[in-house]
Design goal:
Layout (H helix, E strand, L loop, with lengths): L2 E7 L6 H9 L6 E7 L6 H7 L5 E6 L5 H10 L5 E4 L5 E2 L3 H12 L3 E9 L5 E4 L2 H4 L5 H7 L9 E4 H6 L12 H10 L5 E12 L12 H21 L10 H20 L2 H17 L4 H8 L5 H6 L3
Parallel strand pairs: 1-2, 1-4, 2-3, 6-9
Antiparallel strand pairs: 4-8, 5-9, 6-7, 6-8
Helix pairs in contact: 6-8, 8-9, 9-11, 10-11, 10-12
Length: 312
């Protein structure tokens, strides 16, 4: 049993030494690290090429279309049994590989998940895995649809054969929200899942990370595209969903709730907020794939339609 760790990066010279140190301290060495450059132009590649690591590694090139596309290149260019995603600016525990390996050998599941903690760059703990949801018997696919499970592709290992059998890849060209689509597809076919009740992954909340940057037109475009893909997935599987809390109306309300949250992020930057809010509203109005979501909410008793579609 072996694991290929896929790490996409773009201009990550400042972060690579930390994650490479964590990888060099692993108690098990049955892994390879595949670094995928997403058009990186700083000294990242030179650092990787000129540093000796105690683990196997290789460098691949992506096309500047975001971390999802870079991860797809890694999935397609490995023959290892399991794959794992790590963000280049995060950290892992020294027993990260050992714990995943033990579960994978003993149970041979399609997916293994571990717990995580969210920390500041100084190491201060901000939040972490919600244990009740993590150990819940509720279907992971349903909790990903309703938003109660974090949409994080890292902190897991995936059997590569499972991903290939269901043609599970990240949507190309999307920089925001691509994890959610990948996870919905990965969990849609009732995979076997095991969990590790240990916090092995640290999500470092850098102030300038992709998830913390001000919204842009690309943010809006990605939000609409990801919402369309999620809506397609919901419509595909809705006849199998028996949970009354995940009706079409509930799903549509969730979409408009997320749109309202995005609007609040946009309004935090007044100099560009007007144009971006109009772009968001127009994207929702003109998307044929979101018509069902609009129809559900326009005359709904909630304030979502008013909040998202009429306020500036």
């Amino acid at each position: 049993m072996n694991i290929d760790i896929l790490i996409p990066f773009k201009d990550a010279e400042a972060h690579l030494p930390n994650i490479c140190y964590d990888l060099s301290q692993q108690t098990f060495n049955n892994f390879q690290v595949t670094f995928i450059s997403d058009d990186s132009i700083d000294g990242s590649i030179e650092y990787l090429e000129n540093t000796h690591f105690p683990f196997k590694s290789k460098i691949l090139e992506s096309t500047g279309q975001g971390p999802g596309t870079a991860r797809n290149i890694g999935i397609r260019n490995t023959d290892f049994e399991y794959i794992c995603f790590i963000d280049v600016d995060d950290r892992i525990e020294t027993n990260f590989i050992e714990e995943f390996t033990s579960v994978a050998i003993n149970h041979k599941p399609d997916i293994v998940e571990c717990m995580f903690k969210s920390i500041s760059p100084d190491g201060e703990i901000i939040s972490g895995t919600h244990i009740e949801n993590f150990i819940s018997n509720k279907d992971r696919f349903l909790t990903l649809l309703d938003g109660s499970t974090p949409r994080l592709s890292w902190g897991k290992i995936y059997k590569r054969e499972h991903l290939l059998n269901i043609d599970c890849f990240f949507p190309d060209g999307i920089h925001n929200g691509e994890d959610h689509i990948f996870l919905l597809n990965a969990y849609s076919s009732n995979p076997t899942v095991e969990i590790v009740l240990k916090k092995l992954y640290s999500w470092v909340r850098h102030p300038n990370s992709l998830t913390n940057r001000p919204p842009t037109e690309k943010t809006i475009e990605d939000f609409i595209k990801v919402s369309e893909l999620k809506s397609d997935i919901f419509e595909k599987y809705k006849s199998y969903i028996t949970d009354k809390n995940l009706s079409s109306l509930a799903f549509s309300r969730r979409f408009f709730k997320e749109a309202r949250m995005l609007q609040l992020q946009i309004k935090a930057f007044p100099s560009t907020s007007g144009n971006l809010i109009v772009k968001l509203q127009q994207g929702i109005l003109h998307s044929e794939k979101l018509k069902k979501r609009r129809d559900d909410i326009e005359h709904d008793a909630t304030s979502y339609w008013k909040d998202v579609m009429t306020q500036f």
